[in-house]
Every structure is written in C-alpha cells, then in structure tokens.
Amino acid sequence: MRTRGHLALLSALLLAPLALAACGAGLPRGMVFGTGCKAGPCPSTDSLEEPGLLTRLILIGDAGDPWPGTELSGPAPVLEALERWAWRRPELTTVVFLGDNIYPEGLRPGVVADSLRLARQIQVFAPRGGTTRPRAVFVPGNHDWYGSQNPATALAAIRREAEMVRAAGERMHFLPAGGCPGPDTLHLGNVRLIALDTQWWLYTALPPELRVLEDECTRPTAGDPIIPTQIFPFLAELGWHLFLAHDVDSVDAVVVSHHPLTAHGPHAQRKISERIREGIHALGISNSRDRQDLAAWTYRQMIEAIAANLRFPDRPFIYAAGHEHVLEVIDGRDSIPYGGTASNDTVPIADYHLVSGNGSSRGHLSPILPRSPVPLFWSAGAQYRGFMVVDFLDDAHGRRVFLRVIHAADPDRPAYHQQLR
C-alpha cells in the first residue's frame, strides 16, 4: 500500500518533466525527492564509530572523472568526502566502485590522463602508517571497456585497469577478475559481496575476440558456451552463490554490478524510437550506445536473465549499481524490474535496489519519467554528487542495517538515512 509520502513523491515525479521544460536552457543544478529517516531511529553522525559496527559498505559509481574542471589535478570533492568516510573505521570498511572508473574510454595505452583519473581514486586508500587501510573493490562499467566495438582492445583495457588496481597492494581488488563476467565473491564477515560484469551482456552476440575467455572464465560445472543472449552458465552459479549466503546464519548477500535492473534517469527513459530500435535489434543490427539504455532489447534480456536468478527465497538483501548518474533508493520488496508488469513480474528480486552513480563531474540532469517503483529517495545534478554508506551493526538493539546517502557538499550530514532492517 502506498503511503502519503509515496503519493507526494509520485506527484513530484509527474511534474518534474514539466518543471524542467519550463526552465528551458536554464536547467537547475540538481533535484532531490525524499528526505528524513525511515523505519525507526537512525544513529547520529557523532556515533558512527560505535562498537557495534560489523561491516561498512560504501557504494560509489561513475567516479571516473573526479575533478570538476578540465584540469587533471586540484580538489576532487566527492573523493575527498569519500576518503573522510572510508577512514573513520578503515578496518571494517569496504568501498565498492560500481564501474565507469575511467572516463571516457577506460585505461587506454599511453594516455596519461586515464592513469591519473584511476590513480586519484586509488589515492584514497594510500597507507597511513601501521593502520589497516580500507578495502577497495573496483567493478568495471561500459566506459572501462575501452573501444567496446573492438572487443580485443576492450579486454586489454580491462586487464590494464585490473593490474593497476592490484599493483596498489593488499586489500585492493578488481572484480570480476580476468575480464570475466563473474560472479566473483568476496567474503566480508557477515556480508557476501557478489560482483558481476554486466557489460558482457550488452554484446548482441559474443564477439570471436572474447571467445578466448571461454576456457578461462567457464566454471567446471558449466558446459555451455558463453552467449549473452542466453542465460549465462555463470548466472546459474549466481543462484548458487546466493544459496550459500542464505545457508549461513546472519550473512547478507549484496550483489554489485555497473548496470541497474531498475532506475529513474536518462538511461531508464523509454525513447519514442524504442519499437523501431527493437526491430533493428531483431534484424541483427545494433548500436552500442542504445544498448546502454534500460529500454533496449539487449539490456532487457539481461534484466530478465539476471532477475531469474535472484528470486525468492534466495534473493539478495541489496542489489547495488551505478550507470544512472543519480543517487536512488528503491524498496525492492514493493517493486518490479524495469519493463516488468504486475501480471508477469511480481516476485521481488532484491530487498533493496541502490543506484549510486553520481560519483564524479560527468553526468547531466534530465527529466525523469515516473514508473514503478516510486523511489524512496532520488537525487541528481552537480550539487548532489556523492555516494551511499551501508552499515551492518550488531549491538544491544540486535542486528540492524542502516543506509545513508551522502552528498559531497555536506558529507557530515546525510541527505537521507533509513534503517533497512
């Protein structure tokens, strides 16, 4: 049942395109829907170091252009705010970069600017004396697959980026490893982090240049070829990873990838030309840019295949992604994946969908189209860049999970916080 808050938010979403259109060329620098604390009291910022903290996940996506201006140096507000949060409880903190870690085309050979963009993110984790540093996990996005129209070149770029991350030392991870689609799992105490490389799906057919990965990536139990238009044998393993997480008491499964299964933003808008584009896809002609939109046929095939392996009773607690340059919180228990309908797709695929893709100076504000699910919180625009913090606690009140949305402009005062459990 929708609350008054949901109805108000839906009205705002309905009016948003009209409000932006009225602004003409003078678009606002940002928009926010939703605020406050949900489902009980929230710890204050002053109590972030409480002893009951088990695991802190910080989710930041699309951070591959950290400087607001054209210079490749100087202040990087989002990463500076990220660093402050990551080092509060470093031994318990894992920062997950949700793809598009290097704009515009990944780590190209000999391009110093690309190396500097990634190096600035790695700098957040520079060792401080004998203190255990925060853990970092870099997940690739479509921009990291440099020249994705040339898969051999793209694979080389992914492996260069992975090597640069790993070379930074212990507690630095690039997942999934080796240019494979995953799933790869990282055990973080009470959290099982499961990483997918969803860019694999957005090839209409696996290019011959990536067939070399079949022997490296295919699991021993998988005998089928890697063909993205079918359900990966890897996704059968995804279901197994989730089963293992649920088979252990007090372990939460968190699935991370670059591409969201549902969202509000430019990539999620259904274009007028969608039917035409789907017809083009059916003829075997495809445009790589179109495939990055949730309405694209190839993208929707990916959503359906992944969703089929995230169903009750073994669905993950959180599915986190970037791609949309927004910060968005969606209650997955009261929602359906993008493109689904009440008649064919009512089974939840995650308790919560978190879209954290407003991590750098890239991005733009665009009208959003209302569709199910109405978000609990949504922000976008230059002044609302930031990330999300998920704290898993075990204290006198029992096992609890808290979410905070952090805008870099005011990192010590969460823009939104909610008790997830």
Structural write-up:
This protein has 421 residues and is of the alpha/beta class. The protein has helices spanning 4-23, 77-86, 112-123, 151-166, 214-217, 233-246, 274-282, 297-308, and strands spanning 30-33, 37-38, 53-60, 93-97, 135-138, 172-174, 184-188, 191-195, 252-256, 318-321, 326-331, 352-356, 377-381, 386-395, 398-407, 416-419. The strands form two sheets. An eight-stranded mixed β-sheet has the order 1-13-11-12-10-9-8-7, covered by helices on one side. Strands 2-16-15-14-3-4-5-6 form an eight-stranded mixed β-sheet. The longest helix has 20 residues, at 4-23. The protein is globular and about 55 Å long.
What is the 3D form? globular
Query: Mind describing the biggest β-sheet?
Result: 8 strands, mixed
Biggest sheet strand order reads 1-13-11-12-10-9-8-7
Tell me the radius of gyration: 20 Å
SSE topology string: HEEEHEHEHEEEHHEHHEEEEEEE
Strand fraction band?
15-25%
Total number of helical segments?
8
Compute the separation of the termini in Å: 19 Å
What proportion of the residues is helical, as a percent range?
A: 10-25%
Furnish the topology, listing elements before pairings.
Layout: H1 4-23, E1 30-33, E2 37-38, E3 53-60, H2 77-86, E4 93-97, H3 112-123, E5 135-138, H4 151-166, E6 172-174, E7 184-188, E8 191-195, H5 214-217, H6 233-246, E9 252-256, H7 274-282, H8 297-308, E10 318-321, E11 326-331, E12 352-356, E13 377-381, E14 386-395, E15 398-407, E16 416-419
Parallel strand pairs: 2-16, 3-4, 4-5, 5-6, 8-9, 9-10, 10-12
Antiparallel strand pairs: 1-13, 3-14, 7-8, 11-12, 11-13, 14-15, 15-16
